Amino acid sequence: MAASLVYIAAALLIGLGALGTAIGFGSLGGKLLEGAARQPEQAPQLQGKMFLMAGLLDAVPMIGVGIGMYLIFVVAPGIAA
C-alpha cells in the first residue's frame, strides 16, 4: 500500500510540473506577442529575454522528473522490501 502511494506521488509530481510549465509557456508567449505588438522595435530584446525565461522555466519539469524517478526507483523498492 505504501509503495503505491509513492507511485501516485511521483505521477502527481511529474504531471503537475508539466502542467505548470505548459501554463507558464502559454503565458510567456502571449506576453511576448503583446509586447512585440505594442513596441515592434523592442521585439529582438523581448525575444532574447523570453528565451532566457523559457530556459529557466524548462528546468521545472526536468527537476520533477528527476525527483519522480528517484521516488520510483529508490524509495518505492525500499518500502516494498
What profile does the largest beta sheet have?
none
Radius of gyration: 18 Å
Return the CATH architecture: Up-down Bundle
Compute the separation of the termini in Å: 12 Å
Written as H for each helix and E for each strand, in order along the chain, the element string is HH
In total, the number of domains comes to 1
* Unreliable stretches covering 5 or more consecutive residues: none
**CATH fold annotation:** F1FO ATP Synthase
Mean pLDDT: 93
Describe the global form.
Answer: rod-shaped
Structural class: mainly alpha
The portion of residues assigned to helices is over 70%
Helix count from the secondary structure assignment: 2
The tally of beta strands, per DSSP, is 0
CATH class: Mainly Alpha
User: Strand content of the residues, in percent?
Assistant: under 5%
